[in-house]
TrEMBL record:
Pfam families: MoCF_biosynth, MoeA_C, MoeA_N. Its EC number is 2.10.1.1. Signal peptide: none annotated. It catalyses: adenylyl-molybdopterin + molybdate = Mo-molybdopterin + AMP + H(+). Keywords: Magnesium, Metal-binding, Molybdenum, Molybdenum cofactor biosynthesis, Transferase. PROSITE patterns: MOCF_BIOSYNTHESIS_2. This is Molybdopterin molybdenumtransferase. It comes from Corallincola luteus. Residues 186-323 form the MoaB/Mog domain. Belongs to the MoeA family.
Length: 414
């Protein structure tokens, strides 16, 4: 449970493991029309119902013939035309060829296509002839099933359907797919000091940026969002919102109220209504991050500082939501980069410092510079960054020129 110089704080990696072990995947499924399936999570494997291509066809505009009939010195009579969707239906005599368009059905018995730029045409009063100086057997032909064969698994369960997947399904003529139902996520902020953007701030008040930023992140996922707004620091009102969120959602995410202040009722209510999993992590920014269970949902309590809320939502909540959605997501991308400025860090907590990385055109190496002050309330450090420099808990200061790992922001932060 301890970590370096942060006794009593759970390491980030352990927290991710424990959350994954204490959530369940959505099991309910539904059929979704293909045109509405973008971003949905596939619930069962898709097997191809046909061969792709479904027939031998031409890869070029040109001329099709039997390679065995070809001679560089002998013109071939052009006996007809094959268009995409309008196959040539006549007889092809020995030594004859057919004008053919890209995608057109290759007439039976023909095996080679020469592109039109490599054909020399001659014409008489009632006939056309084509001569081909250089020919390679079986060239420019797409063969039936060379891409996908009937019965092949083309997409596996847990895939988040992208435009590429939608295109593949359309190629197969599949009009509906089975997907997991959308996860329902309730979000709210707590605090008497919070105002909505556009309202006038009073003395000691601030704008509620956390809930709005987290909601924007969630909108990049295939989830249904229940926005419960701002809840004042009142135990009875907060209890009512907790109960509503738990009854209507699979996941409850709050912002603020997870520290040790006199008016922070979140932990108390979580203990009374459900069960606390853990409360403090060895992460910076974001030490006061909470995870627990409610009667019908899982609870994530984000810190009140804006950078802490976004970073913990990104690094802790989002991977857990992916598991709950049934999404077999790829791990975060990381690559080595050289620091062009030093970084300050004390051993004890894993630190997600914000940086801006760029590729050095001279050396071909990635370089990263800090975005300045890294305080948990300095949101400009997020805006000017394009990713994190994640520093291990045990590490200390990093000097200019040191090699570090750089982790580009995930899609929900870009």
């Amino acid at each position: 449970m301890g970590c370096c110089d942060a006794p009593g704080l759970m390491p980030v990696e352990q927290a991710l493991t424990e959350m994954a072990a204490n959530v369940t995947n959505v099991s309910e499924t539904e059929f979704c029309e293909l045109e509405q399936a973008f971003d949905r999570i596939l619930a069962e494997a898709v097997a191809s119902p046909l061969d792709i291509p479904p027939f031998d066809n031409s890869a070029m505009d040109g001329y099709a013939f039997r390679f065995a009939d070809w001679s560089a010195d002998t013109p071939m009579p052009v006996v007809g035309t094959a268009l995409a969707g309008q196959p040539f239906a006549g007889d092809i005599p020995a030594g004859g060829c057919v004008r053919i368009m890209t995608g057109a059905l290759l007439p039976a018995g023909l095996d080679t296509v020469v592109m039109q730029e490599n054909a020399e045409l001659t014409e008489t009063d009632d006939s056309k002839y084509a001569r081909f100086a250089k020919v390679k057997a079986n060239s420019n032909v797409r063969y039936r099933g060379e891409d996908v064969s009937t019965g092949d698994t083309v997409i596996t369960p847990g895939c988040r359907l992208s435009p590429r997947h939608i295109g593949q399904l359309a190629c197969l003529g599949i009009a509906q797919v089975k997907v997991y139902r959308k996860l329902k996520v309730a979000i709210f902020s707590t605090g008497d000091e919070l105002k909505q953007p556009g309202e006038t701030l009073g003395k000691g008040e601030i704008y509620d940026s956390n809930r709005i930023a987290v909601k924007a992140m969630l909108q990049r996922l295939p989830v249904d969002i229940l926005d419960l707004g701002v809840v004042p620091d009142d135990e009875a009102k907060l209890r009512s919102v907790f109960q509503q969120a738990d009854s209507e959602a699979d996941v409850v995410i709050s912002s603020g109220g997870v520290s040790v202040g006199d008016a922070d009722y979140t932990k108390l209510l979580l203990e009374q209504l459900g069960q606390v999993g853990f409360w403090k992590l060895a992460i910076k920014p974001g030490k006061p991050f909470a995870f627990g269970t409610l009667p019908n949902s899982r609870f994530f309590g984000l810190p009140g500082n804006p950078v802490s809320a976004v970073v913990t939502c990104d690094q802790l909540v989002m991977p857990t939501l992916q598991k709950m959605m049934g999404w077999q997501a790829e791990p975060a991308i990381k690559y080595p980069a050289k620091l062009t400025s030093g970084l300050r860090k004390r051993p004890g907590r894993k630190d997600y410092q914000r940086g801006e990385a760029a590729l050095d055109s001279d050396t071909g190496q990635w370089q990263v510079v800090t975005t300045g002050a890294q305080g948990s309330a300095i949101f400009s450090s997020m805006v000017s960054a394009n990713g994190y420099v994640p520093l291990p808990a045990a590490s200390g200061n990093q000097a200019e020129g040191d090699e570090v790992w750089f982790e580009p922001f995930a899609e929900w932060l870009r």
